[in-house]
Specification:
mainly alpha, 3 helices, elongated
Length: 92
């Protein structure tokens, strides 16, 4: 019983760290991207600030999906169905 409680505590602590990391990444994005846009506006007419905003934004979406357990392709339901399928399979 104690091992289960320790395991759950460890997983909860890891999950909180993942979410905290995401919010740190989001804060950095919200501070850096406007600064890059300002630099872009001050230096040239070519809209180069779009590229880091887009790339970092994609990474941020992936980080959010990981932190908040959102996976539309391989979600919890898919995992449950596969487990049931493999449990019914006699070849394993």
């Amino acid at each position: 019983m104690e091992n289960t409680s320790e395991y759950r505590y460890k997983r909860a602590k890891e999950k909180v760290a993942e979410i905290k990391g995401f919010y740190g990444n989001l804060l950095a994005y919200c501070l850096v991207i406007p600064f890059l846009i300002w630099i872009n506006y001050q230096t040239t007419s070519f809209l180069w600030a779009f590229f880091p905003a887009f790339g970092w934004g994609l990474g941020l979406l992936g980080h959010a999906a990981n932190a908040f357990d959102y996976n539309p392709i391989f979600g919890k339901d898919w995992e449950r169905r596969k487990l049931e399928e493999f449990m019914k399979d006699d070849k394993l």
